[in-house]
Write a structure and sequence with these properties.
Lipocalin, 21 strands, 2 domains, mainly beta, about 5% helix, globular
Length: about 325
């Protein structure tokens, strides 16, 4: 069966891919990178788990041990969630109970709690109102006061639970507009303080203003996330792949200065060294191959980004399986 391509595969020019198609070169089987062999796989993300069944969730810190102790009714969807809090410093045990839906000051506004994280005296609750609509709720400990809440796409919490990176959500948008990807970071260490706790990381010009990720026109050049998710390489460095104007760029953001002035670096992934359209010509129609010869960047989808242990300062890039690939992984020096 031939695969149909969307409008996103019609932009730009990739000369090397054109040459491969016209020459009929067969190319080499997809190769792996030996420097990726010892790279630790990235942790899983809960927002990809099945939606429609509440499961136990828990988190520990130096001071707190918290778990979702019960939800009512026991059948899904719950209408109420109760968390048990244990303070290891004072030995105090208490419960926090939230309605699933209701006034913002008393409810989580979710049908399912996916994960919780503790940073200092704050609890981050990540849940979903729908299968693909995540909601973040920041709660003060031990009072249970809701400090902040916001919708988010593809949330990824840093290893120390200090930061959460995510794609900005968008409102309903009737009419000829497109959604462009904007990548944000929320700092739990600043939550509830006078300092800004939310920053737009990428692309240049992105803001935290609601609706700024809607651009006029259905054919507008917009950013798309080109990795399966946002990855944390370490406690303060996040990474993802972004597609824009026929290019796929690896983006790294260093948050050593909190979220006030993050350092953002990019590296373009060159399709000419990663794809050979002759390897997959049987999968596409002649018209699709012609379109891909102009822009094959849509075929580059990053599956995983992790630091290598064998080459310090290098990143292992693993790609989603694709018959057009000449290699499934490679190492790049961190931009």
């Amino acid at each position: 069966m031939q695969l149909a391509l969307g409008r996103r595969a019609l932009q730009g020019v990739v000369a090397a891919a054109v040459s491969a198609v016209l020459s009929g070169a067969t190319g080499n089987p997809a190769q792996r990178d030996e420097n990726c062999a010892a790279a630790t796989p990235a942790s899983t993300v809960t927002y990809t788990s099945p939606f429609g069944q509440q499961r136990p969730v828990a988190a520990d810190s130096a001071e707190w041990r918290i778990h979702l102790s019960k939800w009512r009714p026991s059948k899904w969807p719950p209408q109420q969630f109760t968390f048990e809090l244990k303070n290891d410093k004072t030995s105090a045990v208490s419960d926090l109970t939230f309605d699933a839906w209701g006034p913002a000051s008393k409810a989580l506004q979710v049908n399912q709690v996916d994960e919780i994280h503790i940073f200092s005296d704050k609890l981050l609750i990540l849940g979903r109102a729908g299968a693909n609509s995540s909601e973040a709720v920041i709660v003060q400990l031990p009072s249970g006061k809701i400090l902040d809440r916001f919708a988010c796409f593809m949330p990824a919490v840093s290893p120390t639970s200090r930061f959460m990176a995510f794609l900005k959500s968008f409102p309903g948008h009737p009419g000829p507009v497109s959604v462009t990807a904007e990548y944000l970071v929320y700092s739990l260490s600043r939550s509830g303080s006078n300092s800004p706790n939310l920053r737009a990381i990428y692309p240049p010009g992105a803001t935290t203003t609601a609706g700024s990720n809607l651009v006029p026109g259905l054919e507008s050049l917009v950013h798309w996330i080109s990795s399966d998710r946002i990855f944390w390489l370490d406690a303060k460095t996040l990474a993802f792949a972004d597609q824009y104007h026929g290019e796929v760029r690896l983006v790294l953001a260093d948050l050593n200065d909190e979220v006030q002035s993050p350092s953002v670096r990019t590296e373009t992934l060159d399709p000419s060294g990663l794809l050979d359209l002759a390897n997959c010509r049987h999968r596409y129609s002649a018209a699709d191959l012609k379109n891909l010869s102009r822009d094959s960047s849509a075929l580059l989808r990053v599956k995983e980004l992790v630091l290598t242990s064998q080459k310090p300062g290098f990143i292992c890039v693993r790609f989603d399986s694709n018959p057009c690939l000449t290699r499934t992984e490679l190492t790049l020096k961190a931009p």
